[in-house]
């Protein structure tokens, strides 16, 4: 509940200040720079007979093959400086790649 309130506070803070929008709009990069939630970023997942890339529940693209979807997802993740999570055909996470703003960067040589 606390995380949801925090997220809403951030969304409202960066939303446009006109009265024409009922839902706050926010730049994805601005939100993730301030507060990158665990599990966020671009997800490449199977959907029926095709593969989709989604971020925050929103479908970014749809491809016929996993390799095409992974390439497109990588471009989105690099452009937005977020994590790219690649799933297998059964939905299990197979790979994660971070392209900036990593909340838990790897430790070097301990």
Explained architecture:
With 110 residues, the chain is α+β, with helices and mostly antiparallel strands. The chain folds into 2 domains: 35 residues, no CATH class; 63 residues, no CATH class. 31% of the residues lie in helices and 26% in strands. The chain has 3 helices and 5 strands. Strands 3-2-1-4-5 form a 5-stranded mixed sheet, with helices on one face. A hairpin with a 2-residue loop joins strand 1 and strand 2. The radius of gyration is 16 Å and the shape is globular.
Short description:
By secondary structure, the protein is of the alpha+beta class.
Please describe the structure with a list of short key phrases separated by commas or semicolons.
5 strands; five-stranded mixed sheet; alpha+beta; single chain; 2 domains
Secondary-structure topology with pairs:
Layout: H1 2-13, H2 28-34, E1 42-47, E2 50-55, E3 58-63, H3 66-80, E4 83-87, E5 93-98
Parallel strand pairs: 1-4
Antiparallel strand pairs: 1-2, 2-3, 4-5
């Amino acid at each position: 509940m606390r995380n949801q309130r925090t997220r809403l506070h951030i969304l409202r803070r960066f939303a446009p200040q006109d009265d024409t929008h009922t839902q706050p709009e926010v730049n994805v990069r601005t939100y993730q720079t301030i507060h990158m939630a665990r599990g966020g970023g671009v997800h490449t997942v199977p959907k029926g007979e095709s593969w989709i890339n989604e971020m925050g529940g929103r479908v970014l693209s749809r491809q016929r093959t996993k390799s095409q979807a992974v390439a497109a997802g990588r471009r989105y993740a690099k452009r937005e400086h977020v994590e790219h999570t690649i799933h297998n055909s059964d939905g299990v996470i197979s790979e994660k790649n971070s392209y900036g703003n990593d909340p838990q960067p790897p430790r070097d040589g301990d």
